[in-house]
Amino acid sequence: MQTQQQGALWVFAAYVMWGFMPIYWKSLHHVSSGEILVNRIIWAFLLTVLALLLVGQGKKLVSDLKELWTTQKQFWSLCAASFLVTINWFTYIWAVNHDFIVQASLGYYINPLVSVLLGIVFLKESLNRNQKAAFVLAAVGVTILTFHYGVFPWISFVLAFTFALYGLIKKHIKLNATRGLAIETAFTVPIALIAYGWIFSTGDAVIMDTDPLTIVLLVLTGIATALPLVFFAKGVPSIPLYVTGFLQYIAPTMMLIIGVAIYGETFGKFEWLSFAFIWIALLVFTVPEVLRYAKNKRTMMRLQKQESSHQS
């Protein structure tokens, strides 16, 4: 059983990888988002299954499938998680390659707040005063951005809700990280193959008429997909949901910096004002939770020390 610290390190590594992803997807800007997505699904499945076979876990993978099938709720929950993360992937790839990296980063900033909202809806949790204040501040920030853009920032909300739901489902499914990814991608591989067949039939498949580097990058989308997802799945079951949300600030911060500093996306006074409200909301939301967790941990350690001294 891994500790919370080990789990946090796995999730931290996943978010750092996701933070660099805009650079990877931008290198494939000449390939359609749909073709990138189907390559991502197919190669993630093939490379993950191959890795499992090489380390002798093929039988365990079959065993996991059989066990999942006997627990229908978990089987279909994982299927739903697979489609949710696929929607998330496509939206993110499309956003990056259509110069919406800043709006994508907004989606991952508000994701922790969406996670809390899902906790209220599905887990019957209640909001404390700080969380209520954080929601109001974040709503103000999103409203400012909506008026500035003239349209609702749908990219941000699709990314936030799909990944928050994915995280919620994954937290309640106890599967080995790598085998879990193989099963997840297995749900969507048939649709990806059909979609790729259609892309080939229309003559729009770039992979058949492109440079070797593009082919390598398309194949490596499998590794780029698998590694952070495996790290995330390996770490998230052993840490509280709010810790996952706190660590997630790493990825959107990196995305925002990359979008503005490297790719020259606009970040004017309205963006500053909107993001300022959201950053303050995240501080109001996160800091009390971290302090409470630290206080509880110190109390628990003190009690354990007292108990051990009494026993001795």
TrEMBL record:
EamA domain mapped to chain residues: 7-146
Localization in the cell: Cell membrane
Top-rank taxon, per record: Bacteria
Spans traversing the lipid bilayer: 7-25, 37-55, 75-94, 100-123, 130-147, 153-169, 181-201, 213-232, 239-263, 275-294
Coiled coil (residue ranges): none
Pfam families assigned to the protein according to its UniProt record, in alphabetical order: EamA
Entry membrane topology: Multi-pass membrane protein
Family annotation (InterPro entries): EamA_dom, EmrE-like, RarD
Keywords noted in UniProt: Cell membrane, Membrane, Transmembrane, Transmembrane helix, Transport
NCBIfam families for this protein: rarD (TIGR00688)
Protein family membership: Belongs to the EamA transporter family.
Stated name of the protein: EamA family transporter RarD
Gene this protein is translated from: rarD
